[in-house]
Structures are given as C-alpha cells and as structure tokens.
Amino acid sequence: MSNNFISNLRSIDFFGAPLVQHIDRDQSIYKSIFGGIMTLLICSASLSYAIWVIYQWQTNQYSPKISSSAFVSNFELLDLNYDVIKFYYWRSDEGMIDPFEQKVLLPLLTYAENYTLRDKQVLEISNQTTPFGSRYIIPKMKIGQTNFNGILMTTTEMYIQIVKCSPELLKEGEQCASEEITNQFYSQQLNTIVAELQYKQLDSKDGSITSSVQELLIQLEESNCYTLNTYIQSNFYEVKNSLLFGSPEYFEFVNGALIQPQTNSVQYCKQAFGDETYALLYVGIKGNQVKTIFEYPNAGDLLANVGSIISVLFLFRHVILFLNSYFLNEKIIHDVISFYYPQFSQIKIYKNWKRDITKVVLHNQQLELKKYLEFYQNIKQTIKHKLTFINIFYEISRLYILIRANKFQDEIKKCHSVGLKLEYLKLSTIVIDPFSSSSREIDEQILNDEDIGILSLQERQNQSNFKIPVKEADSMNFYDINKIKQ
C-alpha cells in the first residue's frame, strides 16, 4: 500500500527532471561564441523594444480602443459648472449701439418646471469682454429630469428671451433707452446676437479635457421674433486606463446641440411669453445621449506587443540552433578522430576568404592537400557511421564476443559480484580478507580507485606526460609500436 502510494505520488510530479548527459566536463549543452553574440543581440533588442514600448505608454503615444453607442443618461455626472451658454451683441463697428448696455432690449432668463414658466429674471452684463469689445451675458444653467414610461425627459428647461425694455423690469435708478436711441438701434445694419455654446470632450490621446465653442447667430428685427430651439446633447465617457487592476473613470460633458430655427411674429411671442419678445433661445436636454468607451492599453496589451516582437526576433533561434548543431557534430567528429589519430588535433588548417582549405601543416611540415582532403572525407564518413546508436550497440556486442572467445560463461558471470572494496575506510587497521597476501602478484589483481578512470580521457591526458623508455625493435610490444610522439 505504501509503495503504491509513493509510486502514484511520483507519477503526478510536474517537475520531473530528465538525465542530461554532458558532452564533456565543461558543458551539457553545446554553446558557441556565435550563439552567445546572437543571444546578446536578441536580448538587447528585446529589452530595448520593451523599454521603448513602456516609454510610449508613459507618454500616451498609444491610441486607445474607442467604441461608441447610444446611451440613456441620468445626467448625474453631467458637468454644468462652467459657462455652458453665454451670449453678446455683435458690434462690427465701435460706434454701433449695444442694445443691452443702452437698455434698448433686456435679456430675461426664465425656467420652465413641468412645462410651467417661473422665476423670470433680468440677466446682468458680466465683466468678460469679447474680441469685438462687447461684454458677455452669462446665464446660470440648471436642469431637472424625470422618467416617463421608461424614457428620461428633462423637466427643467431654460428660456432666454430678448424683450423690449420696460420700467417694470429695471432696478431702481435705471431707465430704458429713449425712443430716438431705439429707432437708431433698429436702423443699424446686421443687428445680431451671438450665442456661444461651450463644449467639453476628452482627448483620446491622453484623456485630458479639451474645450470647443459653437456659435449661434440670432437676428434682431423690430417686426419678427426669431426663435432657436436648442437641444443640448451630452457624451458619457467611460475611461479604462488602469495598467493592471482598477475601476474605470466616468465623465459626462455637453458636446453638441441640435438646433431648430423658427421665425415668428412679435405678437405670437408676446402672447406665448407675456413680453414683447424679439428673440428667444430655448435650451433643453434630452435623455438619449452617446456613450464613448476609451480603453487604453493595459499590462496584457503591452506584454502582448513586446512578446510579438520578441517572437519575431527569436525566429533567428532556429538559424542559431542549426549552426550550433552543425558545429557540435563537427566537434564530436573531430574529437573522435583524435581518439584514433592523436596527432589530428595538432594539425593547423589555413583557409581563404571563401572558407576553402588552402594549406595543411603538421609539426611545421606541410601535408599534401589532396591526400589530406581525401583522408578527411573518408575518415569523417567512417566516424559518422561509427557514432550511430545501432553501430555503438553493435560494437558493444562484438566486444562481448571477443571476451567470450577467451572466457567461459561461468567466469564472465563472476564479474557481477566483483567491485571495489571500501575496507580501507574502516577504523580498524586489521582487515580480514581471504585473498589477503603480501604477494605482489595478488596485489596487482586487487581493484582500486585507479581502475575507475583508467580508460577515461583524463587518464589519456595524464599518460601524455609519462615517457616510456625507448626499446630495441625486437623487444617492442603492441604499445611500443603504436605510441604517438607528442
């Protein structure tokens, strides 16, 4: 039960590590100078692009995703705390009579609540001046709304009337213009009132609030009542500008108006509003507005942007892997050739700019180029075949055949019970061993630590410094005959 549990526990390990065989003592994965240079270039380019993307995001150079749709607003966030509407008499000449300053006409502000006119008041002239020398008249705008059958409608509306001056509307000490000034005013050319609608909107680049102005022209005539029905529109903004987490910000501004011009008689307007009216500006707000969503790039968008470029840069990885694989094969072939031909690693090869071999030198002696190239191609093909797995297993099987030719099976089976002993690590200096003997012959047969690496490359390097004395030709053995001079 315990073994099964441990086995199942191991089977669900997501972090299992494979055995990585080392190519040599220094590295388990072949790495080249060219690969290192390309890695530095790719990582530097990727980091530089990531910094550039962050810089662009910080400086608001990325445009947001913008979507718009119809929206029924409740106007809770509608910003009216500024001069939404202001108007003035346009004077093309400094000598023209301003009807508001000369009290020829009076601007009246009337609010209609539930379609009933109330709170009539005369508007004062402000200290703000226009580029033409006139002064602005700025009414205070307020609205109210109610929901009627699912439709949001404004219940407080605003009327700006331009009426004939009468003493009842003036303050104490003020008086209306004389008939002469009045006649002189109506005889002027281009008697025009300019109404300015101040709009606000969000700049999609950085989310800042910008302003714009729309001008409405109202003509003044003694016999007509010019009417502008103005239906103000608003834009509801939802701004999603958090980098990772956070709630969106909401704004609502007046950003447009629908205008319905109409010309009536003075008598019609007097009957409707109770005063001798020459111009009327009706201002109302409707509930069907526009909702705009600004969705600025977040952390996921930035990472996706950076990741896409990095993915393109890492396409060079396939080229580098191909080259490293090629150089790794060449290195292994070169090393294996050196196992059989130790002098091969001492050969110096000279190439021209086309990478063609022009000269081969060994121990300061030039080799015949044609013979060397033929030799290298033949031995290279042999080593390639030798390094295949099938061939390696085949050669191992032939080694057993050679051993079997000289040893019986029972003797070969004994190798499974043979190994290096750790008796010398014990505290006791007395070792009881049936094979213990002072005989040099028996000592030579006892396995020790040197047997572990006796066939390794490290031992080969050690042996290169060990000099075997020169013997006579008739006394030379296999090792003497084939020894390579370093």
Automatic annotation (TrEMBL):
| Ranges that cross the membrane | 33-55
Q: What top-level branch of life does the organism fall under?
A: Eukaryota
The Gene Ontology terms for molecular function here are: zinc ion binding
Q: Which UniProt keywords apply?
A: Membrane, Transmembrane, Transmembrane helix
By what name is this protein known?
Answer: Transmembrane protein
Organism of origin is: Paramecium sonneborni
